[in-house]
Amino acid sequence: MKSITIKGQKRESVGKKATKAVRDAGFVPCVIYGGEQPVHFSADERAFKGLVYTPNAHTVVVELEGEKSIDCILQDIQFDPVSDKILHIDFFQLDENKEIIMEVPVKVIGKSPGVMSGGTLRLNQRRLKVKALPKNLPDFVEADITPLEMGNRLYVTKIVADNFKIMHPDNTVVCQVKISRAAMKAAQEAAKAEKSAKGKKK
Prior knowledge:
By secondary structure, the protein is of the alpha+beta class. It contains four helices and 13 strands. Helix content is 19%, strand content 40%. Strands 1-3-2-6-5-4 form a six-stranded mixed beta barrel. It is elongated, with a radius of gyration of 24 Å. Keywords: Ribonucleoprotein, Ribosomal protein, RNA-binding, rRNA-binding.
């Protein structure tokens, strides 16, 4: 999985007054959990654009001045309900020997006969939770729609998962080919014409 580097400064004061001062200066207060003890730091709000405002999934390398870099993933993020600015971000430190659960995007591949016949592809799950060692986390999960005829569904059990596990029930529908109104109308007209033709033969 691709990673994004965030450069920040370690925070010693984490009270409300200090946190407000950090935000007023255009920085985002953050904390990293999962290690021996939480690591509090702040970073320029602009540094998070490629991590937060994207459909892609990334691991994060946090580089703090005078400290060893920390590999982690974004765990939780808080936005201001009015301005939509980032208020706080929680990260979780990665351990190369421990599996982690993370959401990754679904990438549709292949050509569906149902879609080519006029059906509409509906993506029920745009992201899926997967479990894997950090080195095996995929950038995305591939959903092959090649076998899908009109009205068919693709379940998570049909997803190829190499070196990772999909954390969803077996009956979870990833995507499906729905019959479009135009295709339904064409099918009804064809059936009507066929019935009419049979009636004339009699």
